[in-house]
Every structure is written in structure tokens, then in C-alpha cells.
Amino acid sequence: MSAGSRATIERATLIALVSFAAISTDLYLAAIPDIMADLQASRADAQLTLSVFMVGFAIGQIFIGSFSDYFGRIRVIKTSLGVYIVASLICLLASAVEVLWVGRLLQGMAAASGPVIARAMVRDRYQGGEAVRVMSSLAAAMSVVPLVAPVLGGWLLYIGNWRGEFVLLLGFALFTWSGVRGMPETSPAIGLHKPDISAIARQMAMCFGDRCFMGFVVCGGAGFATLFVWITSSAFVITDTFGLPATQFGYFYAPGVVGYALGAHSGSRMLKRCSTLQLLKFSVIVLLCGAVMMQLQADGSAAHAGGVLIATALMAVGVGMLLPLCQMGAISRFDTYAGAASSTFGFSQTLLCALVSVSVAQIKGETLAVMGSLMLVTAVLSACGLVLLVRDQNQRK
């Protein structure tokens, strides 16, 4: 195999790894009402299939980074993919929503290895602005997955039911495993820092004790949580608020995905002409503008689908810019603990997403109004993270 072919396969595999959370959530969103009907579950119970995935995703990230530092990136990702395949079979064969919860929890724990290890591998190979540009280009490329997945998930409902979504997730895991087999090991610290619970706790405490790291965590994590409110709520917004069938979900979902891809691509190019902090300020402003616009739609007497989609796209542009910056900015605070730093960042981000997912399911009220309020709260929290970063930079001068 030529060097060019190997590089293409490696890039495709990295995109698949960073896409694991997106495809594991976006593919089946349109089928949540179908799950309710087939498993005789309540709306809150069906939405919890998303929440428990995010909880598993958060828990998995606590350990994955440190394990990959010590045992190697490739060994850990292969093991995780094996667990994901088993979990997908559990979901596929589930006869009760409680069984589906178990499968989704295991899926989340295994899927955590994808983005954690992909970010660590980028950090192993690249430094500074180059690492951010590579991560931004991966984010832009992987955005094709959440653009296609909801549409494909909607189409599957024409010819089958929600179980078909998990057949595709199983196939995605097998495809990724075949790509990982040919990737080289990149961890610089294999065998150096044995991963025990106390060591992991110390590494996480070290990360949380760094004010700049926490600024990146709050800014990036809350920013993505803003977009995750939309991911959690969108299936019910299109059916409850606008009366559209679930099979059209993918088309309604697409503007947010396009906005995210545009933000990631634009951010990668703009970084060549401005500093990380300048770009973060701009991206947070864009995010806040979109959140305010969504709140106005939610408070209005007659919400318009076009207004909701424009607001979603605007927020997605801001998140697409800021998230790669925050990810690599946080991880770059540490050298030999890149995996642990990646895990800590991912854990914090995912925990915020799990909290907003549970909030959407439990808070009573009209779906659009709840969604708009939570989006505004998380966008403001992202701006607070930016304030921490600005203060840290000013004190370093």
C-alpha cells in the first residue's frame, strides 16, 4: 500500500473516531418516537436512552485517556470497539426500554475512546497552532457524518423500524476497527504512568486545578452543551411544534450540521490571521447571538420554523469555531499527560451534555420554550469561560 493510501485511510479512521458520539446519537434521533411506541415507554424514558449514553460517555472518558497513555492508543481503541459491538447487539435485540438503557450505557462508555484517543493522537503528532488546524479540519470533515446520519435514520423508518439504526451503528464500529488495525502507535508514555484510580484522580485534579484549562473546559463544554440542547429536543420540536413527520427529521436537522461544518472550516482558516483568544471572542459572540435569537422565537406567540433553523445554524457556526480551539487549548496545557487531559476535557463536556439532556426530558413545558431557555443559559456559561481565559491571559502579561 502506498504512503498516500495509508495517509487517506488513517485520516478517514481519525474522522470515524471523532465521529463516534455524533453518529451514536444523531442516527437514531428520528426514531425516538418509534422507540416509545414499540417498547411502550414514556417520552422521558425514551429520551433517557440519549441521557444514559452521555453518562456512559462521560464515565468512559475518565479512564480512557490514562489507559491509552500507559497501554497505547491502538490497544485501547481496539478493546473499546469490541465492547461497542457487543453493546450494539444488546440494543438491537432489546425487548424493553430498560435493556436498551443498559446497551446505550455500554455503548457510551466504549464510544468515549474514539474522540479521546483521536485528540490525543493529534496532540502526539502536532504542536500549537498546527494541532488546532488539524483538529479543526477533522471537525469539518466529520461534520458530514451528523449531516448524513439523521437523514439516513429518517429514511430507515420508511423501510423498517428503530432497530435498523443499531444495525448501521454495528457496521460503523466494524468499519472503524478495520481502519484502526493499520494505524501506528503514537503514545510517548507507554508503560510510564500506571493507570490506577488514585493516579487518575490526581491527574484530573491537576487539570481542574489549572485555571486556563478550566477556562477552555467551561467555554468549550458549555458551548457544545448549547448545541446538544438542540440535539436532544429537535425530534419533538419538529413533531410537536411544527407538525412535521419524523421521516423529515434529517432535513430539519441539516442546517445546524452545515453551520457547525462552516464554523469549523472557517475557524481553521481564520486562525492563520488571528490569535486563539481573538477567534474565541468572535465565536462566543456568534453563539450568544444565535441563542438570543432562539429565545426570541421561543417567547414569540407564533414560532417560525425558518427562524428556529437560522438561530440553530448561527449557534452551530459559533460552536464549530470554538470547540476545536478549546479542545486543543486545554490538552496543550500538558505534555506527557495529553491522554488524561483529553479525558478530563471530554468528561466535563459530556457531563454538561448529559445534564442538559436530562433537563430537557424532566422540565415541564412547551418543548421550544424549554429548549430556548436552556440554550441561552448554556451560551452565557460559555461566555463566562471566555472571561476566565481573558483574565488568565491578562494576569500573565
Describe this structure in words.
It is a single chain. With 397 residues, the protein is mostly helical. The protein has a single domain, classed as Growth Hormone, Chain: A, CATH 1.20.1250.20. It is built from 17 helices and no strands. The longest helix is centred in the middle third of the chain and has 31 residues. The protein is globular, with a radius of gyration of 20 Å. The model has no long low-confidence stretch (mean pLDDT 82).
Brief digest:
Helix content is 83%, strand content 0%.
Please work out how many helical segments DSSP would assign.
17
Task: Give the number of DSSP strands.
Answer: 0
Order of helices and strands: HHHHHHHHHHHHHHHHH
Task: Report the radius of gyration as a whole number of Å.
Answer: 20 Å
- Roughly how much helix do the residues carry, as a percent range? over 70%
- CATH topology name, in short, is Growth Hormone, Chain: A
Overall, the morphology is: globular
Number of domains: 1
Largest sheet: none
Mean pLDDT: 82
Strand content: under 5%
List segments where confidence is low: pLDDT < 50 over at least 5 consecutive residues.
none
Structural class: mainly alpha
- By CATH reckoning, the class would read Mainly Alpha
CATH architecture: Up-down Bundle
Looking at CATH, the homologous superfamily is MFS general substrate transporter like domains
Distance between the termini: 50 Å
